[in-house]
């Protein structure tokens, strides 16, 4: 049976958060052992090709693809495992203003994607870097 999300175009989502510098090692350790139930919930709610990148100063960049960001976020908001995970992870971040990490991130806007340039007028101009 095929995946029902295959027919829907994927939305590419990139976001940033700031890990408290003194808690970076703890953040890494927790992500080396993400709960299997949490991994399953992410997959079931439409989080695909999900990656996290962490700079030495705590800047965290996340990326994933999903048929619908709103559906992916609301699907996770309904999961008890996500409520528990977010509560434990929140203490590792700066500047959440009382929000959970999964709703307190800053979304970055895509300005270029290799593959989209063929349908764009910019492909006739200077190379994009």
Description of the structure:
With 129 residues, the protein is of the alpha+beta class. Helix content is 32%, strand content 20%. Strands 2-3-1-4 form a four-stranded antiparallel sheet, with no helix packed on it. The longest helix is centred in the middle third of the chain and has 11 residues. The protein is globular. The termini are far apart.
Summarize it.
With 129 residues, the protein is an alpha+beta fold. The protein has helices at 24-31, 36-44, 69-77, 80-90, 101-104; strands spanning 11-18, 48-54, 59-66, 106-108.
Features:
20% strand; 129 residues; alpha+beta; single chain; globular
The biggest beta sheet, please? 4 strands, antiparallel
What is the H/E order? EHHEEHHHE
Helix content: 25-40%
Residue share in β-strands: 15-25%
Total strand segments: 4
Helical segment count: 5
Structural class: alpha+beta
Uncertain stretches of 5 or more adjacent residues: none
| Radius of gyration, whole Å | 17 Å
* Average pLDDT reading: 87
Map the helices and strands.
Layout: E1 11-18, H1 24-31, H2 36-44, E2 48-54, E3 59-66, H3 69-77, H4 80-90, H5 101-104, E4 106-108
Antiparallel strand pairs: 1-3, 1-4, 2-3
């Amino acid at each position: 049976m095929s995946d029902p999300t295959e027919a829907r175009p994927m939305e590419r989502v990139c976001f940033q958060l700031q890990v408290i510098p003194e808690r970076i090692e703890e953040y890494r350790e927790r992500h080396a052992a993400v709960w299997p139930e949490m991994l399953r919930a992410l997959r079931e709610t439409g989080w695909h090709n999900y990656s996290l990148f962490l700079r030495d100063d705590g800047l965290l960049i996340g990326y994933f693809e999903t048929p619908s960001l709103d559906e992916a976020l609301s699907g996770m908001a309904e999961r008890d495992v996500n409520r528990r995970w977010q509560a434990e992870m929140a203490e590792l971040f700066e500047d959440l203003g009382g929000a959970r990490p999964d709703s307190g991130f800053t979304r970055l806007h895509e300005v270029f994607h290799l593959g989209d340039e063929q349908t764009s007028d910019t492909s006739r101009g200077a190379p994009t870097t």
